[in-house]
Specification:
Largest sheet: 8 strands, mixed
Radius of gyration: 24 Å
Distance between the termini: 20 Å
Number of helices: 10
Order of helices and strands: HEHHHEEHHHEHEHEEEH
Number of strands: 8
Helix content: 40-55%
Length: about 280
């Protein structure tokens, strides 16, 4: 290939094709050759098992994409699904002791035990100073929520400060058999993320409201060493520009599947800017 500049490197990755897994019946055979053994992850099993990736894509639970080169060889797969971030006012975050205090206070309020309530306020003032008013506010909100549920005949809803639209980048895995030209000098995952995955996400967000993209670092279906998790988190931070949720006072709703994983997110509005910034690092200027 000789000496190539940054734009030529970007064009190399732009020429790959992004295809929905189940859109092509031939993909059933192609995915059988997908290889990913690093860090004992289960992503290879996921993409090769028809009862997993193929079934989820057919059912619409998860949209799975294959990224192929001109010859049709699979270089990488990723999947996305609708998600949700919730906003939480920091003042309402409770320690374990505060949670127990609020639970006891709620019991006293339900029993309409004014003497006990006064006692809890005095004790709370001693233990938590002015924050006792916040704890009483939380107790009142929870009681109101239960009363509202009873009045409407519905199961009590989980109320949060705000709900924020998001897309979860659920799986992201390269085919270890796939080789990029050595002289390119760009990792496969890096190039395809910024030139194929990001444009796909941006196209989706033109049709539906979405403020954030988020993911969980590390597939923990098998043991994943803490050092490997940290390494992967650093990679997502540095190369893909994701960051911790607590920077924006947001919380990711995390399923059991991802219970030991590390949640990271990125604003959709910053994807284009971040893409220009990371490629600038590789520029020959």
């Amino acid at each position: 290939m000789g000496i190539i500049n940054t734009e030529e490197k970007r064009n190399y990755f732009r020429e790959f094709k992004c295809e929905v897994l189940t859109s092509n019946p031939n993909n059933k055979e192609l995915i059988k050759d997908f290889v990913s053994k690093k860090a004992k992850n289960q992503l290879e099993n996921y993409i090769r098992d028809e009862d997993k990736a193929w079934a989820e894509d057919i059912d619409g639970e998860t949209r799975v994409y294959l990224i192929k080169d001109k010859s049709g060889e699979i270089a990488l797969f990723f999947s996305i699904k609708c998600g949700l971030l919730i906003g939480e006012n920091p003042k309402y975050r409770l320690t374990e002791d505060e949670r127990e205090f609020v639970d006891c206070l709620i019991d006293a309020k339900k029993a309409k035990d004014e003497k006990a309530i006064e006692g809890y306020y005095d004790a709370g003032l001693s233990l938590y100073s002015d924050r006792v008013d916040v704890l009483f506010e939380i107790a009142n909100k929870r009681i109101e929520s239960k009363m509202e549920a009873k009045a409407t005949g519905q199961v009590e809803n989980w109320k949060v400060e705000k709900c924020v639209s998001a897309i979860e980048l659920r799986h992201l895995c390269k085919n270890e058999k796939y080789q990029v030209p050595e002289e390119l000098g760009i990792p496969l995952g890096f190039g395809l993320f910024w030139e194929k995955i990001v444009p796909t996400l941006l196209d989706i967000t033109k049709q539906v409201g979405c403020k954030y993209i988020y993911l969980f670092a590390a597939d923990r279906t098998e043991e994943f060493a803490a050092s490997d998790v940290k390494k992967l988190v650093r990679y997502y931070r540095n190369e893909f520009k994701f960051y911790e949720c607590d920077e924006d006072d947001l919380i990711i709703v995390k399923p059991e599947y991802d219970k030991d994983c590390y949640g990271l997110m990125q604003e959709v509005s910053k994807l284009e800017k971040n893409r220009d910034a990371v490629w600038h690092e590789f520029s020959d200027v």
